User: Which sequence fits this backbone?
């Protein structure tokens, strides 16, 4: 404990706590542009300067730890002047393009400029003419808008272990780019979008496709279908004034219908189908000793991409099951098309995802065209849907509760927790237990795999067998798990794990790169709680008990892992080791 | 491993061999003299000696810097029993004449009736001029006296005795205390007490059994070449200092970070490390003790900011050379997160002499707070420009007027710039101040690493400020906004001043911007970049006002910016 004073107010801070955090104890918010709660400080913006009594010169609150007896001054005319001058400098190196910027209204620099009451340009505007990089089709770099806070580089290198982004050149010419000054699509980028989720300005932004969706909706020749991912429903409300984690499923159905979609399906149904396949695959590998252990989940396209690029020796462990929205896309253009008698080429499937990587997933391999057409035509993010709802003038808060459409709209509690780290694992266990010993679990809550720790390991008992589990999220946490798998495989020992779940984004999809702005762990937890609440609200909490799923198998697919399932619901992976570091 | 000769024996053998020479000819082989044609001198001397059959009786010693760089190439002749004679601006013909004049008679090897041409004597440089007599050489004591590429030369000059003494007779703690007692402070500019820094590193727990000592040789101030000269002139002294530091702090590995633009320094340090390793001074069980330290070199990739210790560490690690916030300080968490001491070249070069002569000896030189000597690269409008070493506390005026010999054009001096792009100007009426860390800072400049540029009435102070700021802007790493953008905007404002387009508001803005850069920049580069501007504004505001006032009178057409 360190006893310090913040502007004369005595507080008890933790040893080693930064001044920025300790100031909160005295109800003081010190402004900063570069510090993000998720990330270690980059100390680049220089806005958070404060004074310490007895010390010459100002220090950065974001990096200076408190010491016992420290007297900290966070506000005086001199500090205010320095901060204001620094913000003016940053504005002078930023395009005056707020009105046409995707972050207009959510930009952290804009907010700071407004707070500081900056009304005119003190310094001439010097902005380099740098080209945009939309090459990935998932996220778009606009380096001219970059304020060099370093968050994206840190999240890409430190949290995700991808190292696609870096700074190039120096001094005033410093710019953000794919490392090596290549196109982002040629880089190791896995399109997770965490860079865009952490960017304070509009320098990194989802590759926006709302206009294409509008065009589809206005085309009388086509039948537009929407599906929403589990994580979207507990995050989109943040943009409309709701608390994080508020479950807006039924309002979203209504909103999508008003936007003009002819059918509203739920990705959670696809998640239940995923479990039918994946849990069967797991049960078979476990039962028959067929196939390698562990089974690794593959719902996350960024994780799949990362594995193909950096850890392709893991392909053999991967589940061949497609991700829920891809499955739903295939089923919409086959099963549903058949039911309603529509030509699949007249159907347009729009996935609303918490994720930028899904934009890439929908064309990642031949199996994404299993219906004969492109199964999912467009994937848009939570943020894009937010804008569409706003553009349509739909008052989300006042909408009535509506239901999804049949036959791909009904879901179990297991389907909805796909959106959180550990959720796929938990859902798989609920069904695998039944598939293995024909009995239902008494308690479906696997609390040992929940939480926000980067890696969580647990053991569960199924039919007298000890099943070892590992859950990792945030790709920098993956290597530990993979190395354990490699070590036991090399030694010929019992496998380190039987079931492994990986999600690229911290918190899983609820923390996805396409979710509402301003995520922190506190918000992630609320979104997770929202999904667990949705799970609890369902009487059916096991995927295999979803009656719509049962009908699908009875009427159309046949057996899980059967021929038709293989043709429609599974995919394959390719090593692309050119990105090996 | 083959039996290693004891370094004491090697030193004695070398001393005997030197004493047996009929003459020793020292020719400066530093970058400065080499670039003025010095490369040919050693060859000319050797050929002339061979012509007289004296090749084996006389040493031709290529040395490091002898100091008076503006008059190079320099050759010093030492004949036993006679006063040494120093020659300036030597060319191959003068070299041959030197052999004829001094060596041939001393060796009794030929005709003494040779008549010298009149111009020859004009090349004699008197050694009793203030440039030489007012200096006190500690760091540069052996530069110009030893062949930096022969460890035997250094050993004969008492080299590695300090290390031997430390290993045999002192605990690491005692070494730290001794250095602390001496009052040695970092010579890279910051002036942090060296003993204290070593103490922090000593206390830090090694990580994976490792702890590092890093020699910062990334000198980059315009016009400064102190560290280069020390590394070129006496690399073994720096290496010995590093080994002593390693012993004191518990470091397991030593790193020389030298800028790639110093190929000669790199080459000589490389040779020094090899020779030291061969003689059991680097590697395992140094001089039979428990000390295990290996040393290696990393080249700077051409960024001034890599002289900042955290950027330097990033650079060695193979990352972008950008600074990071401190704490944690490198002595706690440095290179690859190991505790790492970063010491400047000159700091380490002081260490062997302090151990050999005792802390009191060192303490006796200098002022209350600044002890020992300081090496400066004295340049600009002075008669004698070159590399000098003076005791701390000497007045600036004495350095400029006596050692520097005043202005060659007899124009009134205007100011002295110290501290390079981080420093400032000191006006001529304030030159009666002793050289020490605090005084220079108080005057709005700083000690810096040792650049000292003398300016006269011809020099425009706004142009000077613009030059230094331009340097800092070029070298900004771009990591933090205040430095990256602030420097560029400040440069644009100064351009406005020299274009005659600035208003009084612009001068206010310059001051405001200076404060923001000083207070909010992440590292020393940005924090000190406005110093040349602030100090010229402080002492020469009239030169700024001249431009501003003229601009406010649009009828005035005959105004031209200064310094153009």
Assistant:
């Amino acid at each position: 404990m360190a006893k310090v004073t913040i502007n004369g107010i005595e507080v008890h801070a933790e040893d080693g706590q930064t001044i920025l955090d300790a100031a909160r104890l005295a109800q003081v918010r010190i402004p900063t542009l570069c510090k993000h709660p998720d990330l270690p400080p980059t100390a680049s913006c220089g806005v958070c300067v404060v004074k310490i009594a007895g010390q010459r010169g100002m220090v950065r609150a974001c990096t200076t730890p408190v010491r016992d007896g420290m007297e900290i001054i966070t506000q005086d005319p001199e500090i205010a002047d320095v901060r204001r001058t620094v913000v003016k400098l940053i504005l002078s190196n930023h395009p005056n393009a707020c009105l046409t910027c995707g972050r207009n209204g959510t930009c952290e620099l804009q907010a700071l400029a407004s707070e500081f009451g900056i009304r005119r340009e003190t310094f001439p505007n010097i902005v380099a003419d740098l080209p945009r990089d939309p090459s990935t089709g998932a996220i778009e770099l606009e380096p001219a808008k970059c304020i060099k806070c370093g968050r994206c580089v840190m999240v890409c290198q430190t949290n995700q272990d991808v190292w696609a982004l870096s700074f190039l050149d120096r001094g005033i010419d410093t710019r953000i780019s794919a490392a090596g000054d290549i196109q982002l699509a040629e880089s190791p980028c896995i399109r997770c979008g965490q860079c865009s989720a952490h960017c304070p300005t509009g320098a990194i932004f989802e590759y926006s496709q709302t206009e294409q969706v509008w065009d589809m909706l206005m085309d009388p020749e086509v039948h537009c279908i929407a599906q929403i991912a589990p994580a979207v429903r507990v995050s989109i409300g943040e943009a409309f004034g709701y608390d994080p984690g508020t479950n807006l499923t039924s309002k979203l159905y209504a909103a999508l219908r008003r936007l003009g979609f002819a059918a509203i399906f739920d990705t959670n149904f696809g998640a239940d189908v995923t479990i039918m396949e994946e849990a069967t695959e797991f049960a078979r590998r476990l039962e028959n000793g067929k196939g390698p252990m562990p089974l690794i989940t593959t719902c996350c396209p960024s994780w799949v991409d990362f594995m193909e690029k950096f850890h392709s020796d893991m392909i053999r462990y991967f589940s061949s099951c497609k991700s829920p929205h891809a499955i739903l896309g295939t089923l919409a253009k086959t099963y549903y098309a058949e039911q309603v008698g529509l030509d699949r080429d007249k159907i347009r499937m729009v996935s609303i995802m918490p994720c930028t990587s899904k934009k890439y997933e929908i064309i990642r391999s031949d199996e994404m065209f299993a219906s004969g057409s492109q199964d999912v035509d467009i994937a848009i993010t939570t943020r894009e849907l937010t804008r569409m709802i706003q553009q349509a003038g739909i008052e989300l808060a006042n909408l009535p509760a509506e239901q999804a459409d049949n036959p791909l709209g009904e879901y179990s509690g297991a389907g909805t927790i796909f959106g959180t780290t550990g959720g796929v694992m938990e859902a798989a266990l609920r069904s695998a237990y039944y598939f293995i010993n024909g009995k239902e679990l008494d308690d479906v809550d696997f609390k040992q795999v929940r939480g926000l720790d980067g890696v969580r390991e647990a053991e569960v008992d199924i039919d007298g067998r000890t099943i070892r589990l590992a859950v990792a999220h945030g790709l920098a946490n993956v290597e530990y798990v993979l190395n354990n798998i490699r070590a036991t495989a090399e030694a010929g020992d019992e496998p380190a794990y039987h079931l492994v779940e990986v999600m690229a984004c911290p918190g899983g999809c609820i923390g996805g790169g396409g979710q509402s702005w301003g995520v922190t762990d506190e918000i992630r937890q609320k979104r997770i709680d929202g999904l667990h609440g949705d799970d609890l609200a369902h009487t059916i909490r096991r995927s295999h008990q979803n009656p719509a799923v049962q009908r699908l198998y009875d009427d159309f697919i046949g057996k899980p892992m059967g021929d038709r399932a293989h043709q429609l619901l599974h995919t394959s992976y390719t090593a692309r080791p050119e990105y090996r570091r | 491993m083959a039996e290693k000769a004891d370094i004491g024996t090697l030193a004695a053998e070398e001393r005997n061999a030197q004493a047996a020479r009929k003459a020793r000819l020292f020719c400066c082989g530093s970058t400065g003299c080499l670039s003025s044609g010095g490369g040919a001198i050693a060859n000319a001397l050797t050929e002339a000696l061979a012509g007289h059959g004296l090749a084996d009786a006389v040493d031709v010693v290529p040395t490091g810097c002898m100091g008076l760089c503006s008059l190079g190439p320099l050759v010093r002749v030492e004949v036993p029993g006679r006063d040494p004679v120093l020659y300036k601006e030597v060319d191959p013909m003068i070299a041959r004449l030197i052999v004829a004049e001094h060596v041939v008679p001393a060796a009794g090897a030929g005709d003494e009736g040779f008549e010298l041409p009149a111009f020859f004597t004009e090349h004699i440089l008197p050694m009793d001029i203030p440039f030489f007599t007012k200096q006190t050489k500690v760091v540069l004591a052996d530069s110009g006296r030893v062949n930096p590429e022969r460890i035997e030369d250094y050993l004969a000059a008492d080299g590695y005795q300090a290390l031997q003494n430390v290993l045999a007779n002192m605990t690491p703690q005692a070494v730290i205390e001794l250095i602390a007692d001496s009052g040695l402070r970092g010579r890279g500019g910051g002036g942090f007490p060296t003993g204290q820094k070593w103490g922090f590193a000593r206390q830090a727990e090694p990580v994976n059994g490792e702890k590092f000592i890093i020699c910062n040789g990334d000198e980059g101030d315009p016009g400064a070449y102190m560290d280069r000269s020390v590394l070129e002139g006496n690399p073994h002294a720096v290496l010995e200092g590093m080994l002593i530091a390693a012993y004191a702090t518990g470091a397991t590995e030593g790193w020389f970070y030298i800028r790639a633009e110093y190929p000669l320094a790199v080459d000589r340090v490389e040779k020094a490390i090899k020779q030291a390793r061969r003689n059991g001074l680097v590697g395992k069980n140094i001089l039979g003790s428990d000390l295990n330290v290996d040393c290696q070199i990393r080249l700077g990739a051409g960024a001034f900011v890599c002289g900042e210790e955290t950027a330097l560490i990033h650079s060695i690690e193979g990352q972008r050379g950008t600074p990071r916030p401190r704490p944690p300080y490198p002595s706690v968490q440095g290179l690859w997160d190991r505790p790492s001491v970063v010491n400047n070249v000159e700091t380490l070069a002081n260490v062997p002499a302090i151990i050999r002569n005792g802390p009191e000896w060192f303490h006796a030189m200098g002022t209350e707070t600044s002890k020992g000597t300081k090496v400066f690269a004295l340049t600009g409008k002075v008669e004698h420009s070159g590399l000098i070493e003076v005791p701390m506390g000497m007045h600036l005026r004495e350095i400029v007027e006596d050692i520097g010999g005043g202005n060659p054009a007899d124009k009134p001096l205007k100011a002295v710039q110290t501290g390079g792009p981080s420093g400032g100007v000191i006006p001529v009426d304030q030159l009666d101040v002793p050289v020490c860390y605090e005084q220079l800072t108080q005057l709005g400049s700083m000690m810096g690493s040792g650049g000292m540029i003398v300016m006269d009435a011809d020099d425009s102070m706004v142009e000077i400020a613009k030059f230094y700021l331009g340097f800092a802007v070029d070298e900004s790493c771009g990591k933090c906004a205040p430095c990256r953008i602030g420097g560029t905007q400040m440069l644009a404002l100064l351009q406005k001043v020299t274009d005659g387009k600035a208003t009084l508001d612009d001068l206010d803005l310059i001051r405001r911007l200076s404060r923001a850069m000083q207070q909010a920049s992440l590292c020393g580069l940005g924090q000190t970049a406005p110093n040349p501007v602030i100090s010229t504004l402080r002492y020469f505001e009239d030169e700024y006002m001249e431009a501003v006032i003229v601009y406010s009178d649009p009828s005035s057409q005959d105004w031209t910016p200064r310094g153009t």
DSSP finds 18 helices and 17 strands in chain A. Chain A has three domains: 2-75, 92-207, 218-229+260-573. The longest strand of chain A covers residues 465-473.
